Amino acid sequence: MCGARALAAPRDFALQQIAPGVYAHQGAIAETDAINQGDIANLGIVIGARGVAVIDAGGSVAVGRRFLAAIRAVTDKPILYVINTHEHPDHVFGDAAFLNTGAVFVGHENLPRALAARGPFYLKRFRPILGDAAINEVRLVAPTLLVADTMSLDLGDRKLTLKAWPPAHTDCDLTVYDPQTRTLFAGDLVFKGHLPVIDGSIKGWLKILDGLAAIPALRVVPGHGPVGEPWPAALDDERRYFDTLTRDIKAFLKRGEDMRRAADEAAATERPKWRLFDAYNPRNAVDAYAEYEWDP
Ligand SMILES: [Zn+2]
Questions:
Q1: Which domains does the chain carry?
Q2: How far does residue 70's CA lie from ligand 1's centre (Å)?
Q3: pTM given for the model
Q4: Which among 26, 89, 34, 87 is positioned nearest to 59, based on CA atoms?
């Protein structure tokens, strides 16, 4: 490949400034496929006097490389940290693109375990979608700087606040907050437009919504959907979906309806309000059914 590739950001990879020194890339609201190469999650950077913090790396090494090229078009400061907001492939498969930058990889204290437990499955599952070449260059990078509760990362003239959350979207959700610009990188604890995906606990997720809303951010970069939306209003749709799903599931359980009915019909009023509803709602409904069945 051409050696000049890293000198300019590819035109098809947009990295927009949403606040001074804070940039975000909006991934497609789609499932990973051969065309988008896993460019479906939102990514971001915060630039301080000492260097750069990267928040998530994209859903393939190709996407990670395009992201790195876009970062290099904005700043030549060293990349100090690569922070993964959770374990899912669309956020971590691009990590290998940053292995030679010298960055310290950062994650929730549960992230190494999650990657070890589910990584092989993720690689297998996405091999037919992304292809052998793309999967063969993926490295599941276990973070070495682990966040158990909260942690401050010093970028020089600004400090980021990282927070590890109890099980919600997954069991290794981490948020990144820049107090200087009051920008929150929420990872997949916030979905906007793209139906939320429950891979942790709907009850846990509902429980932390107030704590999330209390973060004094002005704007949020959700894991999926438009970036820079006003905070905490950006949480409203997700809260309404979870409330609706919970209410419907509890009603099904009370009437003794089976899980299949829940998968087909729960939260049906939400269908027109979200992209990828049919891809994820049945699974969310089944997970929620199982969770409320044993502990209403
Ligand atoms: Zn996710």
A1: 3-231 (3.60.15.10)
A2: 23
A3: 0.95
A4: 89
